[in-house]
Amino acid sequence: MPVDPQLRSLNIDVPAQPEALVKLSLLLADDDVNLQALSALVTSDMALASAVLKAVNSSLYGLSGRVQSVQQAITYLGTREVAAVTFEMGLKAVFPTAPELDPVWERASVRGLLMGRIGMALSVDPWAAHSAGLFEECGKAVLFRHASERYRPLLRAAESDEDLLLLEQDEFGVSHDALGAALCETWGLAPAAVNSVRYHVMVNATLQLPMQVPRRAICAISALANALMTDPDTLDAVAGKVAPQAELDPLLVVRGVRRVQEQIENAVARERA
Q1: What is the pTM of this model?
Q2: What is the per-residue pLDDT for 3?
Q3: Is 80 exceeded by the pLDDT of residue 135?
Q4: Fewer Cβ atoms within 10 A, N terminus or C terminus of the chain?
Q5: Where in the chain is the domain with CATH 1.10.3210.10?
Q6: Other CB atoms closer than 10 Å to residue 99's CB: what's the count?
Q7: Of 67, 70, 61, nearest in space to 38 by CA
Protein backbone atom coordinates (compact mmCIF):
# COMPACT_ATOMS: atom_id res chain seq x y z
CA MET A 1 0.00 0.00 0.00
CA PRO A 2 1.47 3.41 -0.96
CA VAL A 3 2.43 5.91 1.69
CA ASP A 4 0.03 8.80 2.27
CA PRO A 5 0.95 11.58 -0.23
CA GLN A 6 0.85 14.09 2.64
CA LEU A 7 3.69 12.24 4.34
CA ARG A 8 5.67 12.13 1.10
CA SER A 9 5.30 15.89 0.78
CA LEU A 10 6.91 16.24 4.20
CA ASN A 11 9.98 14.36 2.93
CA ILE A 12 9.98 11.92 5.85
CA ASP A 13 11.17 8.53 4.68
CA VAL A 14 9.14 5.49 5.74
CA PRO A 15 11.53 2.50 5.58
CA ALA A 16 10.74 -0.35 3.20
CA GLN A 17 10.14 -3.82 4.56
CA PRO A 18 13.39 -5.85 4.62
CA GLU A 19 13.55 -8.66 2.04
CA ALA A 20 13.59 -11.39 4.69
CA LEU A 21 10.34 -10.05 6.18
CA VAL A 22 8.73 -9.82 2.74
CA LYS A 23 9.44 -13.53 2.30
CA LEU A 24 8.21 -14.23 5.81
CA SER A 25 4.94 -12.40 5.09
CA LEU A 26 4.42 -14.52 1.97
CA LEU A 27 4.99 -17.69 3.98
CA LEU A 28 2.52 -16.61 6.66
CA ALA A 29 -0.10 -15.80 4.02
CA ASP A 30 -0.34 -19.53 3.29
CA ASP A 31 -2.99 -21.23 5.44
CA ASP A 32 -0.76 -24.30 5.69
CA VAL A 33 2.50 -22.70 6.82
CA ASN A 34 5.59 -24.74 5.94
CA LEU A 35 7.45 -24.85 9.25
CA GLN A 36 10.66 -26.11 7.64
CA ALA A 37 10.59 -23.23 5.16
CA LEU A 38 9.96 -20.75 8.01
CA SER A 39 12.88 -22.14 10.00
CA ALA A 40 15.15 -22.08 6.94
CA LEU A 41 14.19 -18.49 6.13
CA VAL A 42 15.03 -17.22 9.62
CA THR A 43 18.26 -19.21 9.90
CA SER A 44 19.44 -18.03 6.46
CA ASP A 45 20.26 -14.69 8.09
CA MET A 46 22.70 -15.42 10.90
CA ALA A 47 22.29 -12.06 12.60
CA LEU A 48 18.50 -12.34 12.47
CA ALA A 49 18.51 -15.95 13.73
CA SER A 50 20.81 -15.02 16.60
CA ALA A 51 18.59 -12.11 17.60
CA VAL A 52 15.47 -14.30 17.45
CA LEU A 53 17.03 -16.98 19.66
CA LYS A 54 18.23 -14.39 22.15
CA ALA A 55 14.71 -12.95 22.35
CA VAL A 56 12.87 -16.26 22.76
CA ASN A 57 15.29 -17.31 25.49
CA SER A 58 14.38 -14.25 27.56
CA SER A 59 12.26 -14.63 30.68
CA LEU A 60 9.20 -13.18 28.91
CA TYR A 61 8.58 -16.40 26.98
CA GLY A 62 8.88 -18.66 30.01
CA LEU A 63 10.57 -21.62 28.34
CA SER A 64 11.80 -24.22 30.83
CA GLY A 65 15.01 -25.01 28.92
CA ARG A 66 17.29 -23.03 26.65
CA VAL A 67 16.26 -23.07 22.99
CA GLN A 68 19.24 -23.64 20.70
CA SER A 69 17.65 -23.55 17.24
CA VAL A 70 14.92 -21.71 15.39
CA GLN A 71 13.18 -25.05 14.78
CA GLN A 72 13.09 -25.66 18.54
CA ALA A 73 11.67 -22.18 19.08
CA ILE A 74 8.86 -22.89 16.61
CA THR A 75 8.15 -26.23 18.32
CA TYR A 76 7.90 -24.67 21.78
CA LEU A 77 6.33 -21.29 20.99
CA GLY A 78 4.47 -21.88 17.74
CA THR A 79 4.68 -20.20 14.36
CA ARG A 80 2.98 -16.93 15.33
CA GLU A 81 5.23 -15.98 18.23
CA VAL A 82 8.45 -16.91 16.40
CA ALA A 83 7.28 -14.97 13.33
CA ALA A 84 6.41 -12.01 15.57
CA VAL A 85 9.84 -12.07 17.20
CA THR A 86 11.39 -12.20 13.72
CA PHE A 87 9.37 -9.13 12.72
CA GLU A 88 10.50 -7.41 15.92
CA MET A 89 14.17 -8.01 15.11
CA GLY A 90 13.67 -6.98 11.48
CA LEU A 91 11.89 -3.79 12.53
CA LYS A 92 14.68 -2.79 14.89
CA ALA A 93 17.30 -3.50 12.22
CA VAL A 94 16.05 -0.78 9.85
CA PHE A 95 16.56 1.93 12.47
CA PRO A 96 19.74 3.30 14.06
CA THR A 97 20.95 1.94 17.36
CA ALA A 98 20.46 4.68 19.92
CA PRO A 99 19.90 4.83 23.70
CA GLU A 100 16.82 6.99 23.13
CA LEU A 101 15.15 4.15 21.20
CA ASP A 102 15.97 1.37 23.68
CA PRO A 103 12.86 2.04 25.81
CA VAL A 104 10.72 2.07 22.65
CA TRP A 105 11.92 -1.41 21.65
CA GLU A 106 11.67 -2.76 25.20
CA ARG A 107 8.05 -1.65 25.46
CA ALA A 108 7.33 -2.96 21.95
CA SER A 109 8.58 -6.43 22.85
CA VAL A 110 6.45 -6.65 25.99
CA ARG A 111 3.38 -5.01 24.45
CA GLY A 112 3.51 -7.20 21.34
CA LEU A 113 3.68 -10.37 23.42
CA LEU A 114 0.87 -9.18 25.71
CA MET A 115 -1.40 -8.14 22.86
CA GLY A 116 -0.80 -11.35 20.91
CA ARG A 117 -1.59 -13.54 23.89
CA ILE A 118 -4.59 -11.44 24.90
CA GLY A 119 -5.82 -11.71 21.32
CA MET A 120 -5.48 -15.49 21.51
CA ALA A 121 -7.28 -15.59 24.87
CA LEU A 122 -10.16 -13.52 23.46
CA SER A 123 -10.27 -15.23 20.03
CA VAL A 124 -9.27 -11.97 18.33
CA ASP A 125 -6.71 -12.30 15.50
CA PRO A 126 -3.54 -12.82 17.62
CA TRP A 127 -1.14 -12.11 14.73
CA ALA A 128 -2.70 -8.71 14.03
CA ALA A 129 -2.82 -7.96 17.76
CA HIS A 130 0.86 -8.88 18.25
CA SER A 131 1.85 -6.82 15.20
CA ALA A 132 -0.12 -3.81 16.45
CA GLY A 133 1.63 -3.97 19.81
CA LEU A 134 5.03 -4.29 18.20
CA PHE A 135 4.52 -1.35 15.81
CA GLU A 136 2.62 0.95 18.19
CA GLU A 137 5.52 3.33 18.89
CA CYS A 138 7.56 2.72 15.72
CA GLY A 139 6.68 6.17 14.39
CA LYS A 140 9.03 7.55 17.04
CA ALA A 141 11.85 5.56 15.47
CA VAL A 142 10.89 6.92 12.04
CA LEU A 143 11.20 10.50 13.30
CA PHE A 144 14.43 9.74 15.15
CA ARG A 145 15.88 8.23 11.97
CA HIS A 146 14.71 11.26 9.99
CA ALA A 147 16.16 13.98 12.27
CA SER A 148 17.65 12.68 15.51
CA GLU A 149 19.07 16.02 16.65
CA ARG A 150 15.68 17.71 16.29
CA TYR A 151 13.77 14.80 17.81
CA ARG A 152 15.87 14.17 20.94
CA PRO A 153 14.70 17.36 22.72
CA LEU A 154 11.07 16.43 22.03
CA LEU A 155 11.48 13.00 23.60
CA ARG A 156 13.06 14.61 26.67
CA ALA A 157 10.45 17.37 26.98
CA ALA A 158 7.27 15.31 26.58
CA GLU A 159 5.69 14.05 29.79
CA SER A 160 3.21 11.85 27.91
CA ASP A 161 2.52 10.62 24.41
CA GLU A 162 -0.26 13.19 24.09
CA ASP A 163 2.30 15.93 24.79
CA LEU A 164 4.70 14.33 22.33
CA LEU A 165 2.11 14.36 19.52
CA LEU A 166 1.68 18.11 19.88
CA LEU A 167 5.43 18.72 19.91
CA GLU A 168 5.89 16.50 16.84
CA GLN A 169 3.15 18.32 14.95
CA ASP A 170 4.75 21.69 15.72
CA GLU A 171 8.26 20.52 14.75
CA PHE A 172 7.62 18.16 11.83
CA GLY A 173 4.01 18.67 10.72
CA VAL A 174 3.23 15.02 11.47
CA SER A 175 3.08 12.85 14.58
CA HIS A 176 4.42 9.40 15.37
CA ASP A 177 0.99 7.73 15.39
CA ALA A 178 0.41 8.69 11.74
CA LEU A 179 3.93 7.68 10.76
CA GLY A 180 3.61 4.39 12.60
CA ALA A 181 0.39 3.64 10.74
CA ALA A 182 2.08 4.53 7.44
CA LEU A 183 4.90 2.10 8.22
CA CYS A 184 2.34 -0.61 9.04
CA GLU A 185 0.62 -0.01 5.69
CA THR A 186 3.91 -0.07 3.81
CA TRP A 187 4.83 -3.37 5.46
CA GLY A 188 1.45 -4.92 4.66
CA LEU A 189 0.00 -5.30 8.15
CA ALA A 190 -3.70 -6.02 8.59
CA PRO A 191 -5.99 -2.96 8.56
CA ALA A 192 -7.06 -3.68 12.16
CA ALA A 193 -3.41 -3.45 13.27
CA VAL A 194 -2.88 -0.27 11.24
CA ASN A 195 -5.89 1.37 12.87
CA SER A 196 -4.76 0.34 16.35
CA VAL A 197 -1.38 1.99 15.74
CA ARG A 198 -3.02 5.09 14.22
CA TYR A 199 -5.37 5.69 17.16
CA HIS A 200 -3.51 4.18 20.14
CA VAL A 201 -2.60 7.50 21.79
CA MET A 202 -6.21 8.72 21.69
CA VAL A 203 -7.52 5.35 22.89
CA ASN A 204 -5.12 5.14 25.82
CA ALA A 205 -5.81 8.73 26.84
CA THR A 206 -9.61 8.66 26.58
CA LEU A 207 -10.61 4.95 26.53
CA GLN A 208 -12.83 5.86 23.58
CA LEU A 209 -12.45 3.56 20.58
CA PRO A 210 -12.54 5.25 17.15
CA MET A 211 -16.09 5.11 15.81
CA GLN A 212 -14.86 5.25 12.20
CA VAL A 213 -13.06 1.91 12.57
CA PRO A 214 -15.33 -1.08 11.78
CA ARG A 215 -13.35 -3.68 13.77
CA ARG A 216 -12.26 -2.19 17.08
CA ALA A 217 -11.25 -5.25 19.13
CA ILE A 218 -7.52 -4.74 18.60
CA CYS A 219 -7.82 -1.09 19.65
CA ALA A 220 -9.46 -2.40 22.84
CA ILE A 221 -6.63 -4.91 23.34
CA SER A 222 -4.13 -2.05 23.02
CA ALA A 223 -5.85 -0.26 25.91
CA LEU A 224 -5.87 -3.46 27.99
CA ALA A 225 -2.16 -4.06 27.38
CA ASN A 226 -1.42 -0.44 28.24
CA ALA A 227 -3.27 -0.86 31.54
CA LEU A 228 -1.22 -3.96 32.38
CA MET A 229 2.03 -2.20 31.53
CA THR A 230 1.34 1.08 33.32
CA ASP A 231 -1.17 0.46 36.13
CA PRO A 232 -2.56 -3.10 36.47
CA ASP A 233 -4.97 -1.97 39.19
CA THR A 234 -6.97 -0.13 36.53
CA LEU A 235 -7.55 -3.22 34.39
CA ASP A 236 -11.14 -3.87 35.53
CA ALA A 237 -12.12 -0.24 34.90
CA VAL A 238 -10.41 -0.15 31.50
CA ALA A 239 -12.05 -3.43 30.45
CA GLY A 240 -15.43 -2.16 31.60
CA LYS A 241 -15.00 0.90 29.41
CA VAL A 242 -13.48 -0.48 26.19
CA ALA A 243 -14.85 -4.04 25.97
CA PRO A 244 -18.49 -3.05 25.22
CA GLN A 245 -17.30 -0.67 22.50
CA ALA A 246 -15.60 -3.64 20.81
CA GLU A 247 -18.61 -5.94 21.42
CA LEU A 248 -16.65 -8.00 23.95
CA ASP A 249 -17.87 -9.23 27.34
CA PRO A 250 -16.00 -7.24 30.06
CA LEU A 251 -15.98 -10.15 32.52
CA LEU A 252 -14.57 -12.59 29.97
CA VAL A 253 -12.05 -9.98 28.88
CA VAL A 254 -10.77 -9.47 32.43
CA ARG A 255 -10.49 -13.23 32.97
CA GLY A 256 -8.55 -13.67 29.73
CA VAL A 257 -6.20 -10.78 30.41
CA ARG A 258 -5.55 -11.94 33.98
CA ARG A 259 -4.59 -15.39 32.66
CA VAL A 260 -2.07 -13.80 30.31
CA GLN A 261 -0.75 -11.61 33.12
CA GLU A 262 -0.32 -14.67 35.34
CA GLN A 263 1.50 -16.60 32.59
CA ILE A 264 4.06 -13.85 32.09
CA GLU A 265 4.51 -13.10 35.79
CA ASN A 266 5.13 -16.81 36.46
CA ALA A 267 7.66 -16.96 33.64
CA VAL A 268 9.57 -13.98 35.01
CA ALA A 269 9.45 -15.42 38.54
CA ARG A 270 10.92 -18.74 37.32
CA GLU A 271 13.71 -16.87 35.60
CA ARG A 272 14.58 -15.00 38.80
CA ALA A 273 14.39 -18.09 41.06
Answers
A1: 0.86
A2: 45
A3: yes
A4: C
A5: 98-272
A6: 6
A7: 70
